[in-house]
Structures are given as structure tokens and as C-alpha cells.
């Protein structure tokens, strides 16, 4: 009940927006309904699709490791530990908990610093692409260091990179919308990348594990995916 009251306060009272009763409304018909599902085309759409597929690849790379984090720790990081099933479970849980704390700290640091710095510099594209590269560096750590330290470094470096990415990417997305009159629809298309990329990232990791029988190649594959994301973002024109 208290959550509902807070939600009503934040959404219904606090914004103090003007009523939209007199706003012109499009006629509700099949043509207009179908039009709402058409993605952007024409002038300005190229930047939009670079941002869309850049986001798709970045979040897919994120999902490739974080979605399978527990299994990676149990069957890759601790594969040579010699622990029994119960010991392996407890050690993996401890590493995951430590990684969660590290990720939370660096993500908060990124959230509080990346946005203001980006605003001061007037840059969107370069910080987002740089965050993708930083995530790739973090993803290399468990590949280089086959132990818990590698996973902690991943949590710190990739976590900070992903925090920077989340702090700035949505602003970049807004800046590449081709038609302000259809901003809501186009942002919805961009946000679909979150769902699709989760499926893509999970499918890529599953396929690699099925083919190779282990998680070792997940890290270089993730690096390639997020570097593709950085490349696509840098292809955007007209935005620093």
C-alpha cells in the first residue's frame, strides 16, 4: 500500500504537468496503428540504427558473462580448485557476493561522475564507445587470470565501464532520434534492444559452451562483441 502511495505521489502529483485534454490526437484506425510499429526510415535513420545495433551488441556482451556468472565461476574459475560439490558451491557464492559489492561501488561511482563530465565536455558518442572498450578490457581479465582475482578485476573494470555506458547511452540515443514527433515510438524500438540482446548474449554463450565444452572462449567472444558495439557507436555522425 505504501509503495502505491509513493508511486501515486511521484507520478500523479509531483510532476505538475499540464493537462493534455486539448492536445490534438491522431485518428484511431488500422493505418495509424500499423504506422506506430514502423521503425525509422529516411533522413537521420542511419545514426539511429548505429545506436540501436551498438546497444544490441553491448548489452549482448554484458549478458554473455553476467548471465552465466555463477556457472563461469564454478566450472571455469574454480575448475582446478579441487573442492568438493559443497565447497565449490560455497566458494562460488562467496566470489559472486564479493563481485556484487565491487560492481555496486564502481557502478555508483560511474553514475555520479560520468554524466556530469560528459555534460561538461559536451560529448556523448566518445564516452559511450570508450565505456564499451573499458568493458572489453574487463572481460579480458578472467581470460588472463584464471582465478578469483580475474573475476574481481572483471567486476571492477567492466562494472565501471558498464556504469559509464548506462549513464550516457540514453542521452546519446535521444540525440540520434530522427523525428522528435515520434520520439516515444523510436525510443521504444531502441529499448527493444535490451530484450533482444539478452536473448542473443545467452544464445552465444550457450552455443560456445555446447561446442567447446567449457567457458574459456566466452571471454574473447564477449570482447569481440563489445568492440563491435564500440565501432558501431563511433560510426554515428554529428554527435561528439
Automatic annotation (TrEMBL):
What's the protein called, per UniProt? Answer: Major facilitator superfamily (MFS) profile domain-containing protein
Keywords, comma-separated and alphabetical: Membrane, Transmembrane, Transmembrane helix
Spans through the membrane:
48-72, 92-114, 126-145, 151-168, 189-211, 217-234
Specify one Pfam family: MFS_1
Q: Where in the cell is it found?
A: Cell membrane
Entry-linked InterPro entries: MFS, MFS_dom, MFS_trans_sf
**UniProt membrane topology term:** Multi-pass membrane protein
